[in-house]
Design goal:
Layout lengths: L20 H26 L14 H9 L6 E4 L4 H7 L3 H8 L23 E4 L7 H14 L5 E6 L6 H12 L4 E7 L2 E2 L2 E2 H4 L5 H8 L2 E6 L3 H16 L5 E6 L20 H9 L2 H11 L5 H24 L19
Parallel strand pairs: 1-2, 1-3, 3-4, 4-8, 7-8
Antiparallel strand pairs: 5-6
The protein binds thiamine diphosphate (TPP).
Thiamine diphosphate binds next to strand 5.
Length: 342
């Protein structure tokens, strides 16, 4: 049973150097929106109202929130099979994501993609992909295009700790480093790849070192500490916009739910309850909310109001989705391929 490398010793320690109260509140609100969205989906899957496979992001909210706060709206974002949080943090429309997960025509991929294929080009979200490592080479493509254009637009690609085990991660990293591309790899190391823990898969716990070997700058952040993630992301963004090449940020965190769906994988003997409880104790939202109350940025009642607003918004999105039509079967081949010149 796993456990030894998997539990950091202390709750996140926050230090605010320069963020305004409005920004701090926005970080909390974004994390809460993601949490409520994910946990509501978990219930809907249990009720069999949602039937697309959902890889939930609960527990990892600080990573998407911290990174996306450092980006401009037109910066590119690519994600994975576990990208609801990335989509919401970058500014994707919540209702359109929920409708997509319900497979409705009003979804952000017009009901063709489901949970693992969220897009919102209007806010830079070019796609999330169910193919492990599938986003890597495409993200290097947008970074290469923008570097040729000489723009200030950067690319961020989120990936799991399983992805550096794929060849295309290395090929993409090499090209990004050789061309000094304006790209950031954000490795969300949640310690598991489907059902296998990091320590069973790797002799060395050394993902940043692998990126460094390709020529990347590397940074590490506590993935349960939104301010630490944001500080690292800002540094990487500055490097990218200055034309100084790619950075990999490793964020250690934990997904509360099992690999896919609402279960916890304890019943399958894949994780132990103690480990899950220890990470729940490090909840990125609870600790950040407490910090804002301690610092007198918000009252407890204000924190609760933000949570309630997220609940209301998600409930409206569920109602909107249920009232939306399914795509017309006669149009099944529409919007799945974009031909030249379209
Ligand atoms: C090329 C490919 N191989 C295998 C799979 C099956 N698969 C789906 S998710 C996953 C594990 C991904 O783990 P990680 O990258 O660590 O991300 P996490 O799920 O932990 O967020 C695998 C092997 C796949 N979708 N694509």
């Amino acid at each position: 049973m796993s456990g030894s490398i998997n539990c950091p010793p202390q709750p996140p320690q926050f230090r605010n150097d320069d963020l305004l109260p409005a920004e701090l509140k926005k970080l909390l609100a974004t994390m809460m929106r993601i949490r409520v969205f994910e946990e509501r989906i978990a219930d809907l899957v249990i009720e069999k109202k949602i039937i697309t496979p959902c890889h939930l992001y609960t527990g990892q909210e600080a990573v998407a929130t911290g990174v996306c706060h450092a980006l401009n709206s037109d910066d590119y974002l690519f994600g994975t099979h576990r990208s609801h949080g990335h989509y919401l943090a970058k500014g994707g429309d919540l209702k359109a994501a929920m409708a997509e997960i319900f497979g409705r025509a009003t979804g952000c991929s017009k009901g063709r993609g489901g949970s693992m294929h969220l897009v919102a080009p209007e806010v830079g979200i070019m796609g999330t992909s169910s193919i492990v490592s599938g986003s890597m080479s495409i993200s290097v493509g947008t970074a290469l295009a923008e570097s040729i254009r000489g723009s200030q637009r950067i690319t961020v690609v989120f990936h799991g700790d399983g992805v550096p085990e794929e060849g295309s991660w290395h090929e993409s990293a090499n090209l990004a480093a050789v061309k000094r591309l304006p790209i950031i790899f954000v490795c969300e190391n949640n310690l598991y790849c489907t059902h296998m823990s990091l320590e069973k898969r790797r002799v060395h716990d050394n993902i940043p070192e692998m990126a460094k070997a390709h020529g990347f700058k590397t940074l590490s952040a506590d993935g349960n500490n939104v301010l630490e993630v944001l500080a690292a992301a800002r540094q990487a963004v500055q490097t990218a916009r200055a034309g100084e090449g790619p950075t990999l940020i490793e964020c250690r965190t934990y997904r509360w739910r099992g690999h896919v769906g609402p279960n916890y994988d304890v019943d399958l003997g894949l994780r132990d309850q103690q480990e899950i409880d220890a990470w729940k104790d490090r909840c990125p939202i609870k600790h950040f909310g407490n910090f804002l109350v301690d610092e007198k940025i918000m009252t407890r009642a204000e924190v609760e109001k933000v949570w309630q607003e997220a609940c209301d918004e998600v409930e409206q999105a569920v109602a909107y989705s249920l009232a939306s039509p399914y795509p017309d079967a006669a149009e099944v081949t529409k919007n799945v391929y974009r031909g030249a010149g379209q």
